[in-house]
Amino acid sequence: MSSPQRVQSVDRTLDVLEALADAGGAARSKDLATAIRLPVPTVHRILGTLAARGIVLQLADRSYSLGPRLVRLGAVAAHQTGAEAQPLLAELAESLGETVNLAFFTRDSMTYVAQAASPRSMRMFTEVGRRVPLHNTGVGKAVLAALPVEEARGLLALPPVDGGPAPDVEALLGEIARAREVGYAVDDEEQEVGVRCLAVAVPGGPAPAGLSVSGPSSRLTPQTFAEVARALGATAAGLAERWHAYDRG
């Protein structure tokens, strides 16, 4: 299958918006230009067009911020994604008794887009919309395991989005190879002490996606991994089918 045709001006516009988000929501045009390696005049023209549409705002200090029209777009996108996935996530959370998360790959990280909480009093919470690194999360490793090795290597070489230390790329590639063999990835208390997470990749979505189950390490033990992985795989297949049906429309 041939790659979809890409429009350079649209690519650049999206790069500007993502760089603004990476900068915390506000930045000067020259700083954005440096971040995405484009000429300052090009970035300035893009920002001018986006400002005219309310997608970004120019602040009093001449920097730019993400604008109010993005709130509506984001709310609709979040609702659509959550609405499609939520019933299956809730069913899995009820079945396993642990929190279930869905995250999409977003350029250099994973972004959580939906969650179903565990019915137990001791349960894990992850903020929807939160961006997390690829190298130390179950969802990130699961997506990396679904990518070609060299693409995974390139992503692991990028600075972590949380500003933490750079990962040991070769060791992680070995871990990802094992995840590919067994069919699931593990975050073994890497994001938070006392919390484990199992994850699988979800094929066929609007972006590479990871589905995870997270819970206290005392409950999510290695003895439960096979059972949890089977349940994750079944739910991932159900999500993939829903997305495929939605695309057929």
TrEMBL record:
InterPro entries: GAF-like_dom_sf, HTH_MetabolicPath_Reg, Tscrpt_reg_IclR_C, Tscrpt_reg_IclR_N, WH-like_DNA-bd_sf, WH_DNA-bd_sf. SMART domains: HTH_ICLR (SM00346). Residues 7-68 form the HTH iclR-type domain. Keywords: DNA-binding, Transcription, Transcription regulation. Gene3D superfamilies: 3.30.450.40, Winged helix-like DNA-binding domain superfamily/Winged helix DNA-binding domain (1.10.10.10). The keyword Manganese does not apply. Residues 69-245 form the IclR-ED domain. This is IclR family transcriptional regulator. It comes from Brevibacterium pityocampae.
